[in-house]
Design a protein that fits this description.
Layout (H helix, E strand, L loop, with lengths): L2 H31 L4 H4 L13 H13 L21 H30 L11 H28 L7 H9 L2 H8 L5 H11 L6 H11 L11
């Protein structure tokens, strides 16, 4: 692991921690608004990453995959939701699930807005100056990673396989009979996802992420990141 990788990990961390924290807190907040205060009672309606981080899934696995050049994959501690407390359990569970990816999209859009806001600054900042090297460049890299990480988290979680958010959204949209069939997959869902990752079947996720990235990351910065 060289110093560039170490530096990139530090610059990736702010966007990643915010992504994970807001994703999980948004599930809890949506559930609370729809009648289930389980997450609130357990102190999960917070952006404090310590409340959401799983040591293995959030830290060790993604770091090892990053070092060895694999796909960034991991998980946080899921926010508990008691479906029976929701006012309309089937519909509201889909809304709770959708809140997480929506939060990641919001972070990606905010980071994109900051990137576009920095483009005019390049015209007035001295090339090679201290301001550029110590402030603008690190901020550009942080925002770039925030866009990419949040887009990946959003798209990945929208896969229609429970317990991923996309699977729970699908259950909420399907007629009852089909919904029960899809919901029955949930105990085996993560094994299915891991198997698809190992087989490279979900490599198609790259295409929507790349398409969205090309819109969200200004053309000025794209060559820097090999886009």
């Amino acid at each position: 692991m060289d110093m560039t990788q170490v530096a990139n990990l530090f610059l990736l961390a702010p966007g990643a921690l915010l992504a994970i924290s807001l994703h999980e807190a948004s599930h809890g907040y949506a559930a609370n608004r729809l009648g289930d205060d389980t997450a609130k009672m357990l102190g999960r309606l917070t952006l404090n990453p310590l409340k959401h981080i799983d040591l293995v899934g959030t830290v060790i696995v993604p770091t090892v995959l990053y070092i060895f050049g694999g796909m960034m994959f991991g998980w946080a501690k899921p926010v508990p939701v008691n479906m029976m407390n929701l006012r309309n359990p089937k519909r509201d569970m889909a809304l709770v699930a959708a809140a997480g990816p929506a939060a990641n999209l919001a972070i990606a859009l905010l980071a994109s807005f900051l990137l576009y806001g920095m483009v005019p600054l390049l015209k007035v900042i001295e090339p090679g100056g201290q301001m550029l090297q110590t402030v603008i460049v690190p901020l550009v890299v942080i925002c770039y990673f925030a866009v990419q990480f949040n887009l990946f988290l959003m798209v990945f979680n929208l896969l229609p396989i429970p317990p991923l958010d996309g699977g729970r959204i699908l259950v909420g949209l399907l007629p009852d009979r089909q919904a029960r069939a899809v919901a029955a997959i949930e105990p085996y869902g993560m094994f299915i996802v891991i198997g698809l990752l190992m087989l490279g079947v979900v490599s198609f996720l790259v295409f929507p992420i790349r398409l969205l990235s090309q819109v969200m990351i200004p053309a000025t910065f794209q060559p820097i990141f090999g886009m």
